Amino acid sequence: METELTKQDILELFEIQARNFENLLLKERAERNLSRIEFDKRLGELSGTWGKFVAEMVKPKIVEMFKERGVKIKTSLQNVVGFLDDQKFYEIDLLLINNEYAVAVEIKSSLSVEDVKEHLERLEKIKKVPPERVNLSNITIFGAVAAMIVEGDADCYAYKKGLFVLRQKGNIVEIVNDEKFKPQVWKTDY
């Protein structure tokens, strides 16, 4: 015996199908979000490893490069942190120091204008809050950015803002600023 479906039966079936489809979409969206979180985590780990690789390429030659520019470095410190109210306020990838100068270097695998702006903010912060275990009182601070890849005109922007720019050229890293370059100076407030 066949049962005839009423209009109400059909509407209820559509509503059940719509709910099932919506639940399926929600489940797929949740799975996609979990996958994205895992991907972002792994990408962050890879970026950190890549950044360390770039830092290791820059470090060996950087002291000599600045010596050629008249800045003789005595100490090189990695991941120098400044705290404000027990919170990390800034972190400098590489801090080069002597009795007169310090060079705060931001090292990126790929450098963007936004990275340069963030480093300029970091240099303003280091003026106000001393780094842990490093005395920068009465020291002239210069800024520098180092990268294997430069996006857009990030290097030109950094140059115009008074930062030293270090780039990979073949198998070496070099300071690309010309002789007309005048570095911006940051002086500490402490």
List the SSEs and their pairings.
Layout lengths: L6 H62 L6 E10 L2 E11 L3 E11 L1 H16 L11 E11 L3 H7 L3 E6 L2 E4 L10 E2 L3
Parallel strand pairs: 3-4, 4-5
Antiparallel strand pairs: 1-2, 2-3, 4-7, 5-6
Helix pairs in contact: 2-3
Explain the overall architecture.
- This protein is of the alpha/beta class.
- Helix content is 45%, strand content 29%.
- It is built from 3 helices and 7 strands.
- Strands 1, 2, 3, 4, 5, 6 and 7 form a 7-stranded mixed β-sheet that branches.
- It is elongated and about 95 Å long.
- It starts with 6 loop residues before the first helix and ends with a strand.
What gyration radius follows from the Cα positions, in whole Å? 26 Å
Determine the N-to-C terminus distance: 93 Å
Q: Find the CATH topology of the domain at 58-187.
A: Trna Endonuclease, Chain: A, domain 1
Inertia-based shape? elongated
The proportion of strand residues reads: 25-35%
The CATH class of the domain at 58-187 is identified as: Alpha Beta
CATH architecture of the domain at 58-187: 3-Layer(aba) Sandwich
In sequence order, what are the helices and strands, one letter per element? HEEEHEHEEE
Number of extended strands: 7
Count, helices:
3
Average of the residue pLDDT scores:
87
Helix content: 40-55%
